[in-house]
Amino acid sequence: MQPVSTIHYLVLSAALLLIGTVGVLTRRNIVIILMSIELILNAVNINLIAFSHALHQVTGQVFAIFVITDAVAEAAVGLGILIALFRNRETLQADEIDLLKW
Amino acid sequence: MIDTVLFYAFALLVLGGGLATITLRNAVHCAIALIVSLLGVAGLYLLQQAEFLFAVQIVLYVGGIMLLFLFVIMLVNLDQAARERQFNRQWVVAVTAVAVVAAEIGYFLWRGKAAFHIAENALSPASALGNTEQIADSLFSEYLLPFEIASLLLLVAVVGSVVMAKKRI
Question: With an 8 Å Cβ cutoff, is B165 touching chain A?
Answer without folding.
Answer: yes
